[in-house]
Amino acid sequence: MKPLEGNDFTVHELKDALRERGLFTTGTKTELVLRLSVVDPNIWTILGEKRRQALTGNASSTDTAVETTDESTSPVDNTLVPEGGSRSLPLLPEEPDDHSQRELELIQKERELKHRLASKPMLAIYSPNADSELHCDASASGFGGILFQKQGDCSWKPISFWSQRTTPTEAKYHSYELECLAVIYALKRFHIYLMREKVKEHIANCLRCIEFSPSSGKSEGFLHNIPKEKLPFATIHVDHFGPLEKTGKGNRHILLIVDAFTKFIRVYTCKATTTDESRKCLRDYFRAYSKPKRLVSDRGSCFTSDLFKEFSKDEIFSISLSP
Questions:
Q1: 147 in a domain, yes or no?
Q2: Same domain (yes/no): 240, 316
């Protein structure tokens, strides 16, 4: 590939292959793992500490989803880090001849681990609009976490894998302490992908965004107030409140009457919200304060009945029903 003009670098190859269904690793990325033969006791000095973690406890550093278990890696781990020993590998031939059962098991586990590291599992492409879940776990050997996202077919697929080995001090912790550490480490690793709700909440409370964002729903309209005369008791508002705890006289409801001009409130107790009880309270109100020209109420059955309409005609006042 020709170098880009004006730049001092050259694009050699694409490390990962993007497919329609997800992300696959290319062969060049895993070729080293397949060709690696454990023959040099100083191999970890050559590859470095990060390479050692990639081949033993941190398989995610190769961007590969490795489905390994404790049984598949424990013989290799125990040999790589012997108790009280250095981090080196034993000298093993490529084809075992007359070796002990332990060496044969070790070689088999090593080849199985290399095969899984070099396999081509699929990772889904991260989407900022999809729901995310972070799964984590821990043991005395290490920590692990998987970032999942919900796909269009309602299935959950992995986006990224993470794992790391415990330190000698962490390996002595209680299980619940290890689980808490796994949550902390996993959130530190994937926190940038789990901030959508916080970002949405921050934007929703931004005063400038609220001020300049287009309004949704029905457009604002004028408030049509009920015209009132500049006289007390010309317009009154009535409503029932209850039921409440029964009193000694058997009353369980309250009839509220509010004067629209002075905001004067009169309260009557009644046994029920019937038309007869309402008429009884209103007659007492009229005797004490005078008859109104208009009575405003809700659409309760006691105010919409024919009996109450006859009562309004007899007392000569109109009825306005609110929605």
A1: yes
A2: yes
Which has the minimum average pLDDT: 29-43, 44-58, 222-236? Answer: 44-58
Cα separation, 82 vs 323, in Å, equals: 82
Is residue 169 located within the same domain as residue 247?
Answer: no
Under the phi-then-psi rule, with left for phi > 0, alpha for psi from -120 to 50, and beta for the rest, what region is 48? Answer: left
Model confidence pTM above 0.85: no
pLDDT band at 121 (very low <50, low <70, confident <90, very high): low
Residue 35 lies in a domain: no
Query: Is 268 inside any structural domain?
Result: yes
